[in-house]
Write a structure and sequence with these properties.
Elements: H1 12-21, E1 26-31, H2 68-71, E2 78-83, H3 85-94, H4 96-102, H5 104-107, H6 122-130, H7 132-136
Antiparallel strand pairs: 1-2
């Protein structure tokens, strides 16, 4: 599948070892199965969701008793993987070619009146007007949210992509 000179890791363990040594760790946070809360900070020691009352742990089908002892065993029903973005930005800016590409909108653009970059959009211009100090620094990054086949309007038959 890959070319003979591929440099990809041979296993998940090797890839994780490389990323963690670069400061690209992830954090697993337990979550309510109904998406009510994350079990962190003041909710970290709770075993049931304070909003909907659902256990954060998977309950065995053969174990019908709903005692607290049985609710505290087993894996969590839902886990959020948090990937901190700051170390990723630091790695991007550590590479000179990537850093140059990230500042292209301020350093290398040709302003010909055509819409060729998101900097030409009215929303970007509004942000520049509202926050002139942010605009001055070419290395400041703006993030956009992209979704694929997201159902944002509650209609199960309609898929939205942006």
């Amino acid at each position: 599948m890959l070319p003979e000179e591929n440099t990809l890791s041979k296993s998940y363990y090797e890839a994780k070892k490389i990323l963690c040594s670069m400061g690209m760790e992830h954090q697993k946070i337990r979550a309510c199965s109904n998406d009510c809360i994350l079990y962190k900070n003041e909710f970290e020691e709770m075993h049931k969701c304070p909003r909907c009352g659902v256990s954060q742990f998977k309950v065995q089908d053969d174990n019908e008793c709903s005692s607290d002892a049985s609710m505290k065993k087993g894996p969590p029903t839902k886990v959020l993987w948090y990937l901190s973005i700051i170390p990723r930005f630091k790695c991007i800016f550590a590479n000179g070619d990537d850093a140059k590409d990230l500042t292209w909108h301020a350093d290398g653009r040709i302003y010909d009146g055509m819409l060729c970059h998101s900097d030409d959009s009215s929303q970007w211009k509004k942000i520049n007007h509202l926050y002139p100090d942010f605009k001055k620094e070419a290395r400041n990054l703006r993030l956009g949210l992209a979704t694929n086949r997201m159902n944002s309007f509650g209609s199960l038959s309609t898929k939205h992509s942006s």
